[in-house]
Each structure stands twice: as structure tokens, then as C-alpha cells.
């Protein structure tokens, strides 16, 4: 079934309305529908969880890929460098193995053949390749001039060995190798004891415009020389022959002339283009698509010109902002971009920017969500305040639901961390009070922070309520495990529960009422605890019954007596009847103990009582009281006891029925605003035990009870009277 | 300070002027005592010669530049290295005389020195019948520049030595002046040199 649902929902033509209709037709009864609903819900949860996981995985993969790419990039650089080295090495090998002339001839031949066949750009490319190759090959031999290769337009015009002479004395100084480039002269002395591929060591590169070559007329030892005037230096170089000197001087001149010629057309061109460009664009308008390159230029360049600079730099700026955690700035930039009305044209650059900006927007959201995400290695020190910024920005970015989700998760982990710090030591009540205090005060803070962060958002508010509910469930299940144990006295439990309830009620000030949920969660454990308490109390009644000697009780001193009377809350006037002397009370020890126990039980029950628990509470109160009354009844009907004892027992019965029970029902009525039906039943049921005068009367041998149900024949004693209370029956 | 003791002082002279005025002819006459009738435009030639100047052996370094140099920018590199200039025109060609103003301006700009050793030379004085530039005209221009004016002939060797020696003298005296401590001009230079001496 679930698989079918999966299939259907996953399909592209999924129609939710139709699906639901079919489902509701197929399902019989609410139960089945409920099941379907749960199935779909769990499917939805699974899907969202998977989505989250996928997003995260993609993100990490993206980062890794980016790293990998930059890695690859550097490797490619190295590779290309190696390749150029290899190529120049091979070229050098070729040129040394072959005759220079044939090599050059082959090279020019190749060039001329390309001239014919190849398009101009291609030829240019080939020439450029050639130029680069030559340059690389040349500079391969020079140590310390790798950067010179990178100059895009540099080419070698001439090179050769020279002997540098002292300009004043004309004596030999050092062996030089010189390269004349189109833009300068490189001078590199020979390396005396060379190792490795480099033969020369870079000395200087003189710009073409900043030196002058001068022929030196032979004089004395200085022959076949030329001079370089590179202010402030004048350097003298001797060539190997007059021919080579002539060549050098010609090349210098040619280079200078070429440089000047290049400069001048450039100037002219710049003037020309500024004049002609409008003409060109208009011509394109009239006859578009004549030349794809020109067309492209003409169309995109005005667009690009229109694009503001900030927009072009936006992706990079966003990267910087995000990296430096200037999230607000990043958001402002994104806003600016969103407000910018992108031209509708399909210009690739615009689309690219748009795409990049969108990507950066997503990245920003990811980073912000990461901010909020809880991870074990992340400190929760900052608390919720630290999350404010990210939440605010995510809200602004329209990611409230994710922000809300993450925020609540953060709350959960903060809460958990806080609660974990509470050690269980000392009294249970103290522990629970502490735990609950931390739980609810945190929840207060979190809820108010939440409401501040997500104002006017009903969906977020409901998420908060759901979250609070689930946190409360956690807390209660913990408390149930920790506190609701068979050995825990009901008094402790009631105190704990009352504490938690009061703390829980604080939340109503923020409009969050979890009381109903809390009570609901505690209902069954409390029911169990209450029945336990009842069983214990009944057990105690039974134990005391065994030892009941039906004699007045000495409480020890007057104070204890007064205390007892005060504790019971019975009216002293009424109690006067039961007081004898300084410290005696004309009630059996069992009655006194029961009174104490029952009143405390009553208090606990009343404190715990909620509408849902009322039934259980009634039962507990009635059962326990009934057990005591049964004990009295049994003894009153007993044949073993004589009249004086019977009279005393009757007095006890009178106390229980006329003093204690009315007090209990009254208190019950006062506290719960409704009478306890079962206790009323008890009153009528046992009312025969009350003395005829309806009052306890003097502690004197009372007459036999006026009403007596079927006096038992002595022979059949000790058979108990039939009673509803099985426990009591068993007890006998 | 060993070199100046072993090597004679070197004075760098630059020949400037329009093409065909006789710069090379003057240089060759000075260097080799010969006159070349054929005109072969110069690119840039450098000559060196040991001469005795007022009893002191010195070296003269002559840079004969191209008068036909189209590109004024290239001349800057030559001019920078010069210590003194012979600005030559042909008395038979007014254009060459007019051009001297341009050369003068460029030299002053490059050297940035009003008092650079400089001679205005009117060549081809042997062709007086073809004179186009009057002595008066030339003298007054030289006067405005504050430089001597000399008329020469490479062909007859008239005043050839004089212009070179006069210029060398000026260069020499300028160097002495520059080396004088407390001189208003080139104070820094002299200081630097003095400092150098101290170090050496
Ligand atoms: N009659 C006469 N002819 C001269 C004199 N000086 C040079 N000439 C001639 O003028 C022509 C040009 O002389 P050059 O010395 O080569 O001229 P230049 O100034 O060096 O010219 P560029 O090198 O082009 O700057 C040659 O034919 C020389 O023979 C001179 O004093 N008298
Ligand atoms: Mg010449």
C-alpha cells in the first residue's frame, strides 16, 4: 500500500485531489483513513528529511568539487609549464641536430603554406605559437627570466654572443649573450661553470625606447664594436665580425622603427575607431547577422555598457561578504540585485550574472542555516541571541519555515544541555522543582524569543506550540521514569505535580497553554500512582486493624493532643467529646492513625485531582475510608468483643461517620466544587453504626446498636458480614 | 680613484644638426684629417681619440648622430650621454640653420641644463658664394643662447680643431666647476662625489 502511494505521489502526473478522493473512497471508516493519513504524513516527513540530507550532501560536494577544481587548475598550470619546457627542449634538439639554414627554411616554408590555406586568425594563432615557442626556447637558456615569457606580445628579433668591453679602456670584460626582443634588449652574461640547462644568467632587460645603439668606429684594440647608450650607462660590445655588428645595428634600427610604426598606427586607430564605431553599430542594426563576431560585439557591448559596475562585480562581492560573514551586506546586495530590473534580453552575460547571483543567494541561505544548525562541536554558549541574526536574515530571505525549524532544533538542544546539567541529588521534590524550573523558564525565554523572531506568522507559531508540546512530552516521560515509582509516596508525587503545573501555567502569559497536555500526559501515571496509594493505605488500615485494641489513645501530652486536633482541622468543640484529661483521646489508635493518614491522602488527592482524575480520586478516597469503616463494622458485629468495647467501637464509628467523613466531604466540595458521590454512598451505607442519638455521647458503655442487621448466631461466628469490599473480606 | 690617474679624462661630444650639413665630414676631418666628398648619411657612429688639451692628455669621444633621424624621440637617448654639443648647420642651407633651434631646445630639455657646453657651428664656410645664412643672423642666435658661434669648413679644415678643442675646454671647465665644493649648481653632485672620495 505504502509502495503504491509512493509510486503515485512520485509520478509526474500526480494529482493530489484525485489521489485523496480515491483514497477516501477506498477507505472504510475513520480508523482506516487515519492510518492512511499517518502513512502519508510519515512519507512527507521522510521526504523532507531526505531533501534536507540531499541539500546538505550537495553542498558539501559542491565545496569539495570547488577545491578539486582549484587543485586541478594548479596542476594544469604545472603541466602546461612542463609541456612548454619539453617542447622548447625538443626544438633546441632539432635546431642543433639540423642545419640552421634548412631549419629556418622549413619554418618559413610552413608559414607560407599556412598563409595560403589558413584564415587570418588561424595564421595569427600559428604565428603566435611560433613566437611563443621561439621565446620560450630562447629564454630556456637564461636563468632567472621565466616571467619574461609571459609577456603576451614579446618576440625574439635577434640574438647572439657579444663580448663586453670596458667603455673607457676598451679591454674585455665579460662574455655576453644578448637577445633583442621587439620591446627590449636582454643582456645575459655567460655562466662560468654552468650546470643544468641554463647557459646564461639574466642581467638586465633594457627597454627598446630607453637605449640607443651606436656604431663604434674601429680604433686601436676596439674593433667590430657597437655602443649602447642607456643613460646613465654607456656600454661597449664587441661583435664576432663586422658582418655580425652590421646585423646587430640593423636589427636595432628595425626594431626601433617597428616599435615607432606600431605606436603611430595605434594612435591613429584610436582616433579612427572613435569616429567609426557609431557607424558600425548602425550598419549592424540595418543588416544584422552579417558577421557573427561583429554582431556579437555590437549587440553585447552596449548592453554591457548599460550594466552598472556593481552588478558585474556582484557575484564576487557577494562571495567576499559571505566569506567575511558580512551577511547583512550580502543580503543588501542581493536585495539590490533583486530590485534591479534585469533587461529581458537573453544576453549570456546577464543570464550568467543572474544565475551566479541566484547561486550566491542560495549559498547565503546555506551558510545562515549552517549558523543555526546544531552540531556536537558547536558551542551553544551564544544561546538564542546568537541565532537572532541568522534567523532575521533567513526571514528576510523568505526562509522562515526553515529558520523556524532550525531555531526550534537549536532550542531543543539548548534545553537539553541545560537540563542535563541538573543533577539528581537530595529530595525528589527539590529535583523536580529545579528541573521544571529550568525547563519552563527556558521555555519561556525561548518562546518569547521565538515570538520576537517570527512575529505575525501563524504557521511558525503553531510550529512553536508543537515543539513545546513535544518538549513537554520529553520532560514528562523523564519525570515519570524518575519520580513515578512504586516506592514514591503520593505526597511527594502530588507536590512534584503541583510544582510542575504551576511552572507550566507561567507559559499562559505568552499565550501558550500546555496544562491540558501536561495533565493528559500525567493522567495514566497518576492513575497508577493513586491506585498504588490506595492499595498502600488499605494495607495500612488492615495492618492497624490487626493490632486494634479498642482502647483510648494517649497522645503523650497536651501539646500533641492539641496538635492532633489542629492537624485534623476538626472543630475543637466537636473534638471536646473525644478528649479525656490532658493527653488522652477517646478513640482507638487505629482511628487516630487513620485520621492522620486519610487527611493527608485527601490533601494529596485533592491537589492532584483534575476532571479526568476525579473518578480515580473518588475511588481512592472511598475505598480507603470504606476499608476503615469496614474494620469498625467487623469489630462491631464481632461476637468476641464485649459491650464496653462495643460502645467504644461505636464511638469510633461515630467519629468516623459524623466528624471525619463530613469534614472530608466538605473539604472535597470546597476544593473541587462538587460533591463526592461515592463518599455520600459510604455515609449512608455505614450510617447504622452511628449511635441512635446521632452523637458520639459520653464514653460510656453504650447500649447495643439499635439497628442491627441479622444478628449472627454465635455458632457461626466468626463469619463476617457480607461486604462489597473484597479486600476487607480477604483480610478476615 | 685609480682610474682617473691611469686613464685620461674622457670628454663626450655629440654632433648634432640636420642631414648633410657636414657633421660626419667635420668628425672625420678631426679624427683622420681627411675629407670625404661622397655623402653617406650617418646612423650613429662613435669615435674616440686621445688628444692633448692645453698640455693635458684627454680622450675625446665623439658621437656622430644622424641628421636625418626622423624620430626625435630616439635622439634623446644619444643626447643624454653627451657632455658637450656641436650644433652644426650649413651656411648654404637656411633650413639647416632654422633647425638648430629645434636641436637646441631638445638638448636643453634632455639635459635640463642652460649652461651645457655648446657651440653653434656654421659649416661649409668654403662655399661662401652659396651662403644663405648671414654671419649676423647666426651670431645673434648664438648670442641669445649665450653660446659661441664658429664658422668651419670640413673641406679646408678651417676651424675644425678649434670647435672640438673649444668645446672640450668648456666641458673640462664645467667638470671642474661641478666638482668645486659649495657650487650653487650641482651641489648634490659635488657632495656625492666628495662623499665617494671619502669612502675610497
Ligand atoms: N664644400 C663642402 N662640402 C662639405 C663640407 N662638409 C661636408 N660637405 C659635404 O656635404 C655632404 C654631406 O656631408 P656629411 O658630413 O656626410 O653630412 P652629415 O651632416 O654627416 O649628414 P648626415 O650624416 O646625414 O647627418 C658630403 O658630400 C660632404 O662632402 C664642407 O665643409 N664643405
Ligand atoms: Mg653624417
Automatic annotation (TrEMBL), chain A:
The keyword Protein transport applies. Residues 155-257 form the PH domain. Residues 274-288 have a biased composition (Low complexity). It is found in: Cell projection, Growth cone; Cytoplasm, Perinuclear region. Residues 260-292, 690-732 are annotated as: Disordered. SUPFAM superfamilies: Cullin repeat-like (SSF74788), PH domain-like (SSF50729). Keywords: Exocytosis, Protein transport, Transport. The keyword Transcription does not apply. InterPro entries: Cullin_repeat-like_dom_sf, Exo84, Exo84_C, Exo84_C_1, Exo84_C_2, PH-like_dom_sf, PH_domain. Residues 700-712 have a biased composition (Pro residues). It holds the Pfam family VPS51_Exo84_N. GO terms for cellular component: exocyst; growth cone; perinuclear region of cytoplasm. CDD domains: PH_RalBD_exo84. GO terms for biological process: exocytosis; Golgi to plasma membrane transport; protein transport. It comes from the Eukaryota. Belongs to the EXO84 family. Component of the exocyst complex involved in the docking of exocytic vesicles with fusion sites on the plasma membrane. This is Exocyst complex component 8. It comes from Frankliniella occidentalis (Western flower thrips).
Automatic annotation (TrEMBL), chain B:
NCBIfam families: small_GTP (TIGR00231). SUPFAM superfamilies: P-loop containing nucleoside triphosphate hydrolases (SSF52540). PROSITE patterns: RAB (PS51419), RAS (PS51421), RHO (PS51420). One of its GO terms (biological process) is signal transduction. This is small monomeric GTPase. The gene is LOC113205389. One of its GO terms (cellular component) is plasma membrane. Coiled coil: none annotated. It holds the Pfam family Ras. Keywords: Cell membrane, GTP-binding, Hydrolase, Lipoprotein, Membrane, Methylation, Nucleotide-binding, Prenylation. The keyword Nucleotide-binding applies. GO terms for molecular function: G protein activity; GTP binding. The keyword Transferase does not apply. Gene3D superfamilies: P-loop containing nucleotide triphosphate hydrolases (3.40.50.300). Residues 176-195 are annotated as: Disordered. Its main location: membrane.
